[in-house]
Amino acid sequence: MKLIRQFIIILAIFIFSFSFGWAEQAKGILYFIEGGTGAGICHVYTGRQLLKLHYTKYKEYGFEHQEGYKYGSIWNVKYHTEAGGRKVIDSIEFTGKYDPAVKAADEMVRSYYIKAARGEFTEAYKMLSPGWQKDQSFDSYNRGMKKIKFKESAESAPTFALKIIGHNSGEVLLLVNTFWFYEGASGYLKMEVKKVNGVWTIDRVTPVSFKQWDES
User: Fold this and answer.
1) For 161, how many CA atoms within 13 A lie in the half-sphere containing its CB?
2) Which residues form the domain of 200?
């Protein structure tokens, strides 16, 4: 009878784990988040792997002022993997800390687009790296920027308009969904953001495909 009871317990645990997945936990940096209060997806980089986590209902801790949803936020995440391989969040705790490189690069790029949208091209040009400025004079940059029509949303683009795809202490790679910034534009850019003499700058920008955006 005791063996039968043990077998039933083991079987129940197996069925539960197969249906709902084993609980796992990780600590990582928020790279991307998209969705509303109902459902969505976020990317959390642990230092070893990029977790693409889905969410519907979950518990959150430490998010009193929503600061924990900024890119670079460091989270403690509990999640489970469903039978089909999809990882689903059970709870998130914002540690109150940020990765300084990711946070600074994200804020700098958003600031760049705000200045550009306002026509502050002199200030925007200063945010380009010395290497890029060497390749493109201000006059050339200014002429090109005047041809671009920016959307009002460029000054308050949603978090998911950008996607962090890699970083170290001196460089951050991110993708930009141009829909939120340029009138009549629907495409994606890759930005290389580098720290030069203690200042974060945009070093290079190259177009990428939707597939690259989607799979990153």
Assistant:
1) 19
2) 101-215
